[in-house]
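Final paragraph of the annual report: two paired records, presented back to back.
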Amino acid sequence: MAGATELSPVRALASAATPIVPSRWLRVRPPTVARALTVLALLLHAVVFGFTAPLGRSIAAGVPMMLAGLAWMAWAWWHFRRAETPVPPTAQPTMLVDDGPYRFGRNPMYLGVVVMMLGLGLAAGVPFMAIAALNFVAIVGAVHVPHEEAQMRRTFGGWYSDYAAGVRRWL
């Protein structure tokens, strides 16, 4: 049994200053992860429920939610492009972007993807999309975010540390 001062594997992963996952996992970019989880959720739904929506569909709630997620993500992307810093998570950042949606959370593009996935689940009546969205958060949070944060700390040092101390990871 672990002593009081030892961290559980989950806490060690969450508090790691540098990524502890194999670098080959970083080659699978977050949009690819989101697409794969979406397809998996849709296929699983088709196998379990066919084309029915057991909890109903809500196009009126789902479509605006998807559009809100897309808008949030596009707003974040636009701030990256305006700052002339690369968007891919494995690229070397050239500018610390802390305005626009980055004032509210450090990962607005990922948050936008999650909101779009949940909106699709509502609109299509696919409850497995909620599980897919949670898995996306878990995968990105365990694989990509630690790498990105370590890279930001190496590149921007105290500026990033101050920013991270004042802005939440998600919202």
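The closing record of the year follows.
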Amino acid sequence: MKRVVVLGSTGSIGTQTLDTIAQHPDDLRVVGLAAHSNASGLLEQAAKFGVKRLALSQAVAGSDIPSGMDSLIALATIEEADIVVISVAGAIGLLPTIAAIEAGKNIALASKEVLVAAGELVMPMIRKHGVTMTPIDSEHSAVFQCMQGYSSEQVAELIITASGGPFRGKKRSDLEGVTCEQALNHPTWRMGGKITIDSATLMNKGLEAIEARWLFDIDIDRVKVVVHPQSVVHSMVKFKDGSVLGQLGWPDMRLPIAYALLYPERKPNALKPWNPVDTPTLTFEPVDEETFPCLGLAKLSARIGGTMPTVMNAANEIAANAFLKGELSFLGIADIVSRTIQEHKTQVPTLENVLAADATARSRARTLIHDC
């Protein structure tokens, strides 16, 4: 029996995580839940799963649920937890992740921003404390599965697949008047608002490339991205002998969630298994980086290294959320990220420097948006 804490339990990944746990009552048990500000939803989940340890990242009027970063950290480090699911939106998951690792907890990671902002800090901690970090993202889960029994030295490339988002095939001029509703209309996945916007800009693939760089100890230029509209091949690993392994399945996040929580075991589930005759034509296309520059900006920040990926990620969070609020155009997202990273002088990524760079970048991005 693995005892699980879920940070971000009322979001898309969090609710699917709880659905997965409910399907495996003999193997998984929830012992802690945290949400951003959805106190009522959190209490409903707590009642359903019999959970007493709760936290909110943002205080809610009239609620006596512990709130704030200290409460998230306290929940992530409770003695009875074996594994902590990090599925909060954005870099807010960084400090609870570090605290959980230092407390000897295994990590199931859905918040790619944790490694984007501080992979150079987090991965050595994983090794030092002898814990595991299993990825929940379908792309990283696919790579993780394909690399079982192999080392990074045997890998030529990691091939991350992208659906192409709602604007696949469009040119930059087609995107000038994009609305929030159009950007949120993802053709394959149903996700939270910010990550869906990242999918529309293809920034999510840039973040995934950086996350893969740290998870699998691969140089950023050996992480490739291809567009795969069917979203059946979740990612591939090309080895130095030319062989390519891929992981295939229907686009359902409950499959990688189950693998992350139950690893190294595989348990039967109620999900529909993929059948090759149901998708006789699987296609792949190159990424149009001229129309979707966010992927290149993310990889550029990774090549520069230091605190630059932190700044890139922070600026993107501010810009994507500004678009969701109607304060910035769709094309303005990449422009704000580009301008913010151009102004940053990278530093060695200590925790203090990472947190300071994150805060400064958010402030600068807000100013640039206001001045647009």
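The chain has 14 helices and ten strands. This concludes the annual technical report; the extension proposal builds directly on these records.
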